[in-house]
Amino acid sequence: MELARIVENLLPSTVMATPGKTARDARPANEAARLTSRDNRWLKEFRMALRGGLPTEGGFIGVEGARLVEEALRSGCRIQAVLFSEFGERHHQRLSSLIDRPEMAFPVLRTTDRLFEGLADTERPQGVAALVHPRENSFDDFVRAPLFACAPLLVVLAGVQDPGNVGTILRTAAAFGATGAATAASGISGTANPFSPKALRASAGAALHLPILAGMSLSILLAQLKVAGVRTLAASVHEPREGDQPLLAPWQVDWCQPVALLVGNEGSGLTEEVERSADARIRIPMASGIESLNAAAAAAVVFYEAARQRNAAAAPGLPAKIT
Question: Do 187 and 240 belong to one domain?
Answer without folding.
Answer: yes
